[in-house]
Amino acid sequence: MCIKSFDMVIAFNSYVVKKIKLIKVIECLMWKVYQQLASQYSRISLEEERQLIAQAQGRSRKKKEELVLRHVNFVIYRIHKKAFPAYVRRFGDDIFSEAIFVLYDKINSYDLGYKDRQGNSKPVRFSSYIWKRIDGLILDAIKKEIQRESCQISPDWERHEQDITASIKN
What we know:
Blueprint: H1 2-39, H2 46-57, H3 61-70, H4 72-82, H5 85-109, H6 126-153, H7 157-169
Helix pairs in contact: 2-3, 3-5, 4-5, 4-6, 5-6
């Protein structure tokens, strides 16, 4: 009976290891698909980028999508730069999805007429405009997930307070 249980445990562990390996392969493929998609869009000059932003702000859905796709590699780079690989594996897809929404929001708030403190026109690349927001999003998402996990792991002390105080008194 004991040997049979042991064999079942080994079989279950083998199953879990195979499933984990499959998940890692899928995650690796996911990032490659994103990068292949983004590689179809080469880097453009600042002037071309500003024209694209102007058209995107002019309610051209196609131009908004193009601008977002041109910055997918930048978002992937920032996620991998800011987060530990374990967090990228666990939360990378969710962070990436949220970052896409941030890109769409930032297109609308980008100021084509930005001027420096002296009043001179100061064109800024879109990636320079969004990098702090993307980094903040990454850090906030990881903090939120870590807090969520720590709340699930830590015991509910109030529920066990009477048992703890009784054991201390004895």
